[in-house]
Design goal:
11% of the residues are buried. 43% of the residues lie in helices and 29% in strands. It has 148 residues and is an alpha+beta fold. It is elongated. It has 2 domains: 49 residues, no CATH class; 92 residues, no CATH class.
Length: 148
Amino acid sequence: MTPLIASILMLGGAVGSATLSTFILTMLAAGAAVLVAICWVIAKEWLERARCRNWPTVSAVVDIASVAYCEPAGGPILNLKASSYNPYYQATLTYIYHYPEEQMGDYSRSFGKKEDAESWANSYKGETVKVHVDPSDPTRSVLREEDL
């Protein structure tokens, strides 16, 4: 990609300035698209947390605590949740609750080190936690980080 940029910038005359302005506009558009994508992810997560805040809460028991090794797909631009394009460990808490029948849900969190992920996940195994349940769909629940 760098030789392409250098060749565009080294072009002279009217064609060079037209190409340079096209290049600058393209880069600005690409930057705006990435910014919109990042804002979309942040807004979507915020909306979900705000919406479930008013759902009724029930007690749930963490039944399974697991850790999985993950490699980000799509590179650093498409993987907006990873701080960089590095492999990570995803700890998942699977919980069981009754509303009104037995239901199951899960909550995941990412860690840079396997030991940290395992320690965090194992600290919740068998624990009782508070989950928010969608009153219109009891199979849908959210365990908020603030409730851990």
